[in-house]
UniProtKB/TrEMBL annotation, chain A:
Topology within the bilayer: Multi-pass membrane protein
Alphabetized Pfam families for the sequence: BPD_transp_2
Keyword Transmembrane appears in the UniProt entry: yes
The keyword Transmembrane is assigned to this record: yes
Compartment(s): Cell membrane
InterPro entries: ABC_transp_permease
Lineage: Bacteria, Bacillati, Actinomycetota, Actinomycetes, Pseudonocardiales
Transmembrane segments: 12-31, 51-78, 90-114, 120-142, 162-186, 217-239, 251-284, 296-313
UniProt protein name: Sugar ABC transporter permease
Keywords: Cell membrane, Membrane, Transmembrane, Transmembrane helix
PANTHER family hit by this protein: ABC TRANSPORTER PERMEASE PROTEIN YPHD-RELATED-RELATED, INNER MEMBRANE ABC TRANSPORTER PERMEASE PROTEIN YJFF
Main localization of the protein described in the UniProt heading: membrane
Organism: Lentzea pudingi
UniProtKB/TrEMBL annotation, chain B:
Protein name stated in the entry: Sugar ABC transporter ATP-binding protein
Domain ABC transporter: 9-244, 260-503
Keywords noted in UniProt: ATP-binding, Nucleotide-binding, Repeat, Transport
Xref: Pfam families: ABC_tran
The organism's place on the tree of life at top rank: Bacteria
Species this protein is from: Lentzea pudingi
InterPro entries: AAA+_ATPase (IPR003593), ABC_carbohydrate_import_ATPase (IPR050107), ABC_transporter-like_ATP-bd (IPR003439), ABC_transporter-like_CS (IPR017871), P-loop_NTPase (IPR027417)
């Protein structure tokens, strides 16, 4: 570590720690269970968590700006509901996609505007958004609606073959594209750098003449857009729409982002950290399913412990 | 300085009111290209408000601003910057989580192919830094650099655009002498390039050294505009505070007359903490003002924190009233009657979003214990008493502390400690960043407290102040107590020599 220190800036350390944790967890699995160390297990990590990767990317924007978005899980559910019932009503797939994405972004825009105009804590506003979106699901239907559209099913079940016989779904491709786009926006555009500035010190950012309003509202639009896209991916994954889909998923997304080294206080963190966080969570889940005798609740316990440890480590790093 | 070029900025009849306060009334202000213009006034005189009106943070209720012949009305700092007015505020307003280069160019990064061109950005930042003679790595994180360097980065940001007007709002308050000289060098370079510089500082020496012209404000109104060469300090000060300097002399007399010394209240025997301050002996008597003199980083604050229990001593012992007292933390110090008014009045001590009344009541209530509520009458009476005693302005107990000027916040902080009736009051830089009028009042207050039997440990970077006010002066250097002097028999020069002279660090001067 000391030998690395001069070359690796300290700001990358949290992300590297998460990556190391992922490698460690994966190594433990490979050593203990036959068939764990295969390309397909890694591919499955991505397939089973594609929607969470997209959510985490959107959440990273919000958390970097110093906010929080609790509505994302409900927006995922609402998106599955709109998708399923839209397709059931015979809407063409492109129209469904546009409606879902517009709904998510509009909801994000509204929450962002309320947060900014009335100067209310994001926690409360997005909590309201969470209830609203969840309620809207049941307004559409209280039952689970299955998706029978042929195009949709074809995309959902299509397998892309990678070298080595490993297959992934389109979901994974979309999720990775989102991560790449998010990285580009955060690191290469003025908007992205302003997100970091606002999260670092909002009043400074304002006095430096940065468009803080656009940033503060914009991050919620991005998060809303990502949530509805994640909802589409979730529909592809579940092939149904249901108001009780994705309950508590916002917390998984926040956990992944924080485990990935992004400071809840804002200003510090990377999209890749969120991706690494999702992979860590996924690996723990896989480990527990390979183990076979442990209840799946153990996943939650491990995530809880990890979160505590990571937040404590972050805290000491910030103090230093 | 001739008046041949037209002013680059002309503000006419500016008025601005905040709820309950007329911050500016019909103020005129002119700024010429290629001059350093000092804006003078006490805390609360309206300097910051005038600056913020110029830079688009506030919008005036009346009046007009003309920039280079065109009437302008900025609605945001961004617009003002766009028009060539750059500002460096007292507190460094940058983002410590980003790199130096980003802080300089944020919002106007060079772009290529739709993305930010980082190599070009670092090159551009290095150019700007080189222009003001600062050589640091633009790719390094801002948080790695000391405040003084961050201040220079803020200036680099200000001049990275084609700026016609540079506003420096108390840029020197956290800099040492060498850094100030460096800043002035940069200011002269920019002035000679034709930039109009608006400079605010509480240090008169600095104002006289650097400024060409000055505008004096008092209570939100214009008192006058002069060429610096035309006004001497005495008349400047009387313009600023609207009264003469008799008060300051009275304080000195009081310090000299104060001979009655009470019993030893607090005594430190070999008290020390590794890495903070070497073991020292110290005796503070009731009714005595002990001054701590030394440079920044000489261990002044560290010594005070040991006495207050904010840091744990790892050697020696502390006696209060002759009995050893083991300080487990500030709470036990407060219980023993020790109060510590920190130099960081924003971070520690005051709740900015509460009113003056609430801030005072909080302290009283904490001192009484939460189970015994204070009657409303007592509260009102005490709050009024301290508002009056400390001349806190506005004298409205419901005004939010956040809206007060620095000097008045300091007074509220002092009042907060005074309501607990401490026996030893430790004041760490109580007068930093506040104006002469408020300074004199705080010094006056210290004198009064001592006369009433309170022991005071007075820490200040301004030696004159320490020498004027203290009965005994403890001199620190390099985290070590090097001398203790009799305050009334000592001059500033003697103390300076002790602090500067590195020849005999172990010399114990006790007169």
């Amino acid at each position: 570590m000391t030998a690395l220190a001069p070359r690796v800036p300290t700001r990358f350390l949290p992300v590297l720690a998460t990556v190391a944790l992922f490698v460690l967890a994966f190594g433990v699995g490979s050593a203990r269970y036959d068939g764990f160390a295969s390309g397909q297990v890694i591919a499955n990590l991505f397939i089973d968590n594609a929607f969470l990767i997209v959510l985490a990317a959107g959440m990273t924007f919000v958390i970097l700006s110093g906010g929080i978005d609790l509505s994302v899980g409900s927006v995922v559910a609402l998106s599955t509901m709109i998708t399923a019932s839209g397709l059931k009503a015979g809407w063409p797939v492109p129209l469904v996609i546009v409606v879902v994405l517009l709904t998510g972004s509009t909801l994000g825009l509204l929450m962002g505007l309320v947060i900014h105009k009335f100067d209310i804590q994001p926690f409360i506003v997005t909590l309201a958004g969470m209830f609203l979106a969840r309620g809207l699901c049941f307004l559409i239907s209280v039952e689970s609606v299955s998706i029978k559209d042929k195009t949709f099913r074809a995309v959902a079940t299509a397998a892309i073959e990678l070298p080595g016989g490993v297959t992934i779904t389109y979901n994974v491709v979309i999720a990775l594209l989102v991560v790449a786009a998010a990285m580009y926006v955060l690191h290469r555009t003025r908007f992205g750098r302003s997100v970091y500035a606002v999260g670092g010190n909002e009043s400074s950012a304002l006095l430096m003449g940065l468009p803080t309003t656009r940033v503060k509202v914009g991050v919620y639009v991005i998060s809303g857009l990502c949530s509805s896209l994640a909802g589409l991916l979730f529909s592809l994954y579940m092939l149904s729409g249901y108001g009780l889909h994705a309950v508590g998923m916002e917390l998984d997304a926040i956990a992944a982002v924080v485990i990935g080294g992004t400071l809840l206080a804002g200003g510090v963190g990377y999209v890749l950290g969120g991706l690494a966080g999702v992979l860590v969570l996924g690996t723990i889940q896989t480990l527990i399913s390979f183990q076979g005798t442990l209840s799946s609740w153990w996943t939650k316990i491990v995530i809880g412990v990890l979160l505590l440890v990571f937040i404590a480590v972050q805290r000491t790093m910030v103090r230093r | 300085m001739t008046e041949s070029p037209p002013p680059v900025v002309e503000m006419r009849g500016i008025s601005l009111a905040f709820p309950g306060v007329k911050a500016l009334q019909d103020v005129d202000f002119r700024l010429f290209p290629g001059e350093v213009h000092a804006l003078m006034g006490e805390n609360g005189a309206g300097k910051s408000t005038l600056i913020k009106t110029l830079t688009g943070v506030h919008r005036p209720d009346a009046g007009e601003t003309v920039l280079a012949g065109e009437a302008v009305a900025f609605s945001s700092p961004g617009e003002a910057q766009h028009a060539g007015i750059s500002t460096v505020y007292q507190e460094v307003n940058l983002c410590a989580n980003l790199t130096v280069a980003e802080n300089i160019l944020l919002g106007r990064e060079p772009r290529r192919l739709g993305g930010i061109d980082f190599p070009a950005m670092r090159r551009r930042a290095a150019e700007v830094l080189a222009r003001i003679g600062v050589h640091i790595d633009p790719a390094s994180s801002l948080s790695e650099h000391p405040i003084a360097v961050q201040q220079l980065v803020a200036i680099a940001r200000a001049i990275a655009v084609d700026c016609r007007v540079l506003v420096l709002d108390e840029p020197t308050s956290s800099l040492d002498a060498g850094e100030v000289a460096e800043l002035f060098r940069i200011m002269r370079v920019l002035r000679d390039e034709g930039v109009a510089i608006l400079f605010v500082s509480h240090f008169l020496d600095q104002v006289y050294e650097i400024s060409d012209r000055m505008t004096v404000l008092r209570n939100g109104m214009l008192v006058g505009e002069h060429l610096t060469a035309d006004v001497d300090r005495r008349s400047l000060i009387s313009q600023m505070i609207g009264r003469d300097l008799g008060t300051l002399e009275a304080i000195e007399d009081a310090a000299e007359k104060r001979t009655a010394q009470g019993p030893v209240l607090v005594q430190a025997e070999g008290l020390g903490r590794r890495g903070a301050i070497e073991p020292f002996d110290l005796e503070i008597r009731a009714g005595q003002v002990v001054g701590l003199a030394g440079l920044l980083g000489s261990g002044r604050t560290e010594l005070a924190r040991l006495l207050f229990g904010a840091d744990r001593a790892d050697s020696g012992r502390l006696l209060v009233d002759g009995a050893p007292l083991r300080l487990r933390g500030p709470r036990s110090a407060i219980a023993a009657g020790i109060a510590f008014s920190s130099e960081d009045r924003k971070g520690e001590g005051l709740v900015a979003d509460l009113s003056i009344r609430d801030n005072l009541v909080l302290a009283m209530q904490a001192a009484r214990g939460w189970t015994r509520p204070l009657p409303r009458r007592t509260k009102d009476h005490l709050v009024e008493k301290y508002l009056k005693a400390l001349d806190i302005r506005p004298a409205n107990p419901d005004a939010l502390v956040r809206t007060l000027s620095g000097g008045n916040q300091q007074k509220v902080l002092l009042a907060r400690w005074l309501v607990t009736e401490p026996r030893l009051l430790i004041l760490d830089e109580p007068t930093r960043g506040i104006d002469i009028g408020a300074k004199a009042q705080i010094q006056q207050l210290v004198t009064t407290l001592a006369a009433e039997g309170t022991a005071v440990l007075f820490i200040s970077a301004e030696l004159e102040e320490v020498v004027r006010i203290a009965d005994r002066i403890v001199v620190l250097r390099d985290r070590r107590k090097i001398a203790e002097l009799d305050g009334s028999a000592t001059g500033v020069d003697e103390v300076v020599e002790l602090i500067a002279g590195g020849a005999a660090p172990d010399k114990e001067v006790v007169s």
